[in-house]
Amino acid sequence: MDLEEIKKAVLNGEIVHWKSGAYQVVEHFGQFSIKCLLNGHMIGLTHRDGVTMNGKEEDFYIKK
For 2-63, where are the alpha helices, taking DSSP H only? Predict the structure, then answer.
């Protein structure tokens, strides 16, 4: 999934994971992050440039 697909899916209420079910993309006040559901740690979905993702596009998927 590319960045815009991820954002759109999250805003539409779909659950987007990164690599495994342990990591979920979340949105808070317009900011998108990858959250570890095991310990609550979060990193930005993108680097500070707002474009370069913290993960490969092919590692993101929608929970079915």
Answer: 3-11
